[in-house]
Amino acid sequence: IESFAFPKRRHHYAKQTHSMTFQRGQRLDRVDTQLTVEPTIIAGAIATAGAAAWWVSGSEEREKKAKYSEWEARERENQLERESLAYIEPKEQWTEEELKPYNGDDETGPILLAVKGDVFNVWKGRNFYGKGAEYNIMAGGGATRFFAK
Questions:
Q1: Residue 66 or 60, more confident
Q2: How close are the terminal C-alpha atoms of the chain, in Å?
Q3: Cα-based torsion angle of the residue sequence 66, 68, 73, 75 in order, rounded to the nearest 10 degrees
Q4: How far apart are CA 99 and CA 127, in angstroms?
Q5: Which neighbouring-strand residues pair with 109?
Q6: Which helix (DSSP H) or strand (DSSP E) does residue 52 occupy?
Q7: What are 102-141's pLDDT values in tens digits?
Q8: Are the CB atoms for 120 and 79 separated by under 8 Å?
Q9: Measuring CA to CA, which residue among 134, 80, 140 is closest to residue 104?
Q10: Residue 142 CB neighbour total at 10 angstroms
């Protein structure tokens, strides 16, 4: 059997062992090549891969924070607008007739209720005192009897 060997060479970027068999039973000898790369290049590659992974993994979180900040800004603007729509000039004395229009039927306007002579604008509690809510019966009039012990 005749054998053939590749000449031994040193390559910088690969270490491989080759073993080939031909159909006629001829076999090639093993050829080894060795990797010779500076440790600083390997460390740099690992650091770069780590930084890329950190950046990619944090992008979703940054995106969520940006969307939340946008939502907060819009919510603040909406809150200020609702507050301005629900504002009513305070008065020293209110009559039952003056309070009736502010019973929560208006979706954006003030909701007033009186307790022991004090009038409160409860527009922030629209889900409690607004139209169709549980305590809507108190809105737009005197609610002292509802708060009595």
A1: 66
A2: 112
A3: 160
A4: 19
A5: none
A6: helix 39-86
A7: 999 988 899 999 999 899 999 999 999 999 999 999 999 9
A8: no
A9: 140
A10: 16
